[in-house]
Structure formats: structure tokens, C-alpha cells
Input
Amino acid sequence: MRAIVLEKFGRLDSLVYKDIPEPEPKASHVVIQIKAFGINRAEMHMRRGEWAEAAPVSGIECVGFVKSRRRRGRSAQRQAGPNLLLRRNS
Output
């Protein structure tokens, strides 16, 4: 899958568009097929190295649909799911 990845702390050129492995959902989690996302103020601080933690892949706020899910104690299931508007709480 294609993603905008934080390779180092610094200016905007620290964000690199590259191919990364498609994630598998963890137990009780979903994988979202992202249709649109924004880089918000928190990610600006992460990119600059001003926060202790930084998300390696950009897109804290996104819109998409459930691509796959994993129920507790079961293997991953691929299926189209409901449309989502997501804001991840860090």
C-alpha cells in the first residue's frame, strides 16, 4: 500500500511517499481503506520532533471504510464494511 511516512524529524521533506506492507488487523481491531486524510497540527509537532511519540504513518484524521477486521480469538476476515469518519485519539 502507499503511505506518507515520517522517515526523520524535520521539515516537510521529512514526509516521504512510499510503499509499505499492508497491515493485518489485531484482535478486536479493523483495517481501514483510507479515501482521504489530513495532516493535522499534532502531526506537524510529531514531524518536528516536538512530541515524545510520533506516528510513523501520517493520517490521524481520515475518512474511509472497513477493509478487514479481526474479532477476538479469530483470524482476520476481509470484507467491505461501513463508511467511517475517524479521528484517532492518541
User: Anything to note?
Assistant: Residues 2-87 form a domain with the Quinone Oxidoreductase; Chain A, domain 1 fold (CATH 3.90.180.10).
